[in-house]
Write a structure and sequence with these properties.
The chain has 6 helices and 14 strands. By secondary structure, the protein is an alpha+beta fold. The longest helix has 23 residues. Helix 1 packs parallel to helix 6. The termini are far apart. The strands form 3 sheets. Strands 8, 9, 10, 11, 12, 13 and 14 form a 7-stranded antiparallel beta sheet that branches. Strands 1-2-3-7-6 form a 5-stranded antiparallel beta sheet. Bound molecules: uridine-5'-diphosphate. The site of uridine-5'-diphosphate (UDP) has 14 residues, from strand 9, helix 2, strand 12 and strand 14. Uridine-5'-diphosphate binds next to strand 9, helix 2, strand 12 and strand 14.
């Protein structure tokens, strides 16, 4: 049997050549990293949860007309996605202050922001993904003005969708990060949501208790990361409540 070709290995995912041209198989690993990979650990089951959760969010987004790279889930850890030319930016949307914006602007964690704030970081591990402005993005040709208009519109639609979905299950969407890729349809370029949307790339707080249900559990040693992600998946109905209870055998007459 031919061995499939690895295209790229990242911190939490590996990409393999897909079965058709223009497709990629995205494999979710159990590796958790933080602080630019200075802290790392294997969290059993994280890849399976993120594969399911990213499928859930991307499918929901497609349902409201937001284009994404997701084609279909292949198995517990893999999904088939569209190959896209990645824009080298992390697009962050913030509804409440947390993480780097608190340090940068001296804000108290958890305060509601006056409006959703969209920020951009240049994707470069060696530089620690620095914050950049549209001036940098245009000057260095990472994206055009038209691209940025589309990217902001996409990011805000993802924010509204994700905020609503989370609110419905008692979770506050504090902030999140997306990545965007270009695909070509004839002579036309379209920007689509790519990479993943999961508790690895969002801040999610229980509305009642403030319990953190995202990667901050790992970053700040707040408990079991897989438990937190399982709770998100369970509330969203992505995992049955009874996952741990094996189904009873049925008598066949
Ligand atoms: N984020 C991410 N990948 C990164 C940086 C940030 O997914 O490389 C997410 C992070 O999980 C959070 C949001 O983007 O939901 C904002 O992160 P922030 O800028 O506060 O950075 P951090 O405090 O995580 O360093």
């Amino acid at each position: 049997m031919a061995r499939r070709k690895k295209i790229y290995e990242g911190k939490a995912k590996t990409l393999y050549e897909g079965p058709e041209p223009g497709t990629i198989v995205q494999y979710f690993k159990d590796d958790a990293t933080a602080f630019n990979a200075e802290k790392r650990e294997i969290i059993d089951g994280k890849g399976v949860l993120n594969n399911r959760l990213s499928e859930f969010f991307m499918t929901g987004l497609a349902g409201i007309g937001v284009p994404t790279h997701f084609i279909k889930r292949l198995n517990m850890r893999e999904q088939l996605i569209r190959a896209a030319e990645m824009v080298p930016l992390e697009i962050i949307v913030r509804n409440y202050a947390a993480g780097s914006i608190c340090k940068r602007l001296g804000l108290e964690e958890g305060i509601a922001l006056p409006r959703p704030i969209v920020e951009y970081c240049y994707k470069d591990d060696a530089l620690g993904d620095p914050l950049v402005s549209e001036e940098h993005i245009f000057a260095f040709g990472w994206a055009s003005q038209q691209d940025m208009d589309d990217i902001v519109a996409l990011a805000l639609r993802v924010n509204d969708f994700m905020s609503g979905v989370m609110m419905a299950v008692g979770i506050r969407l504090v902030d999140f990060k997306i990545e965007v890729g270009r695909i070509w349809e004839g002579d036309f370029q379209r920007l689509i949501v790519a990479d993943e949307i999961s508790p690895d790339s969002c801040r999610l707080w229980d509305i009642e208790t403030g319990r953190k249900l995202d990667k901050d559990v790992f970053r700040r040693d707040l408990g079991d990361l897989a438990d937190a992600y399982t709770e998100v998946a369970r509330r969203l109905g992505v995992l049955p409540n009874t996952l741990t209870e094996a189904p009873k055998p049925k008598l066949v007459k």
